[in-house]
Amino acid sequence: AQSVTQPDIHITVSEGASLELRCNYSYGATPYLFWYVQSPGQGLQLLLKYFSGDTLVQGIKGFEAEFKRSQSSFNLRKPSVHWSDAAEYFCAVDRREYGNKLVFGAGTILRVKS
Amino acid sequence: DAGVTQSPTHLIKTRGQQVTLRCSPKSGHDTVSWYQQALGQGPQFIFQYYEEEERQRGNFPDRFSGHQYPNYSSELNVNALLLGDSALYLCASSLRGREKLFFGSGTQLSVL
């Protein structure tokens, strides 16, 4: 069965510092890959997605992610974190033949200190 | 343009009761998916509706059922509530064939 692992439950970074959130997936073929963000009391907002092609994908709010097939990873990065980035971040995968049946990781809570 | 709307936002029920949650998809979307997000966990796929039929289902018991209406709105029904059903229930809509989900803010269900 598919699984998504986000090894870090909590991460704290200083405002202006760089950020990397880790995501590893377990699946035989390359699935569709997503990063979502969830603020308290809110639904999920899509940050970026990877379907095929260039392995470095750009998203909203200055986020980017790199797909590494050899490592089954899809890590999220941001060069300079803002206080408003504090939220919970979820990595998700979708088997290409299913269509929008996402499997999510457990999430990483980002705290930003000033 | 309204996004995905869910009602109610909060709900408190007792074990054994039944509950109905509602979802209106984003304008132009024809597919609705439901997810359960327990505290401290990522969302889990419950099922997906398209053309008023359940098209895909996750690993949830038959106590969880749904419906989609001709206007694409959807309901999630849970019978014989258990304490473990306490969670945030998220509705997501999409256009069939498009890999982009839009999520609502969810319904927080507490079972006492």
> Number of helical segments of chain A?
0
Question: What proportion strand of chain B?
Answer: over 45%
Query: What is the N-to-C succession of helices and strands of chain A?
Result: EEEEEEEEEEEE
**From the helix content, strand content and strand pairing of chain B, which structural class follows?**
mainly beta
Number of helices of chain B: 0
Give an overview of the whole structure:
- The complex is a heterodimer of chains A (114) and B (112).
- Chain A is mainly β and 114 residues long.
- In chain A, 0% of the residues lie in helices and 51% in strands.
- Chain A has no helices and twelve strands.
- Chain A has strands spanning 3-5, 10-14, 19-21, 24-26, 32-38, 44-50, 56-58, 64-68, 73-78, 87-94, 103-104, 108-113.
- In chain A, strands 2, 5, 6, 10, 11 and 12 form a six-stranded mixed β-sheet that branches. A four-stranded antiparallel β-sheet of chain A has the order 3-9-8-7, with no helix packed on it.
- In chain A, β10 (87-94) and β11 form a beta hairpin.
- The radius of gyration of chain A is 13 Å and the shape is globular.
- Chain A starts with a strand and ends with a strand.
- Chain B has 112 residues and is mainly beta.
- Helix content of chain B is 0%, strand content 51%.
- Chain B has no helices and eleven strands.
- In chain B, strands 2, 4, 5, 6, 9, 10 and 11 form a seven-stranded mixed β-sheet that branches. A four-stranded antiparallel β-sheet of chain B has the order 1-3-8-7, with no helix packed on it.
- In chain B, β9 and β10 (102-103) form a beta hairpin.
- Chain B starts with a strand and ends with a strand.
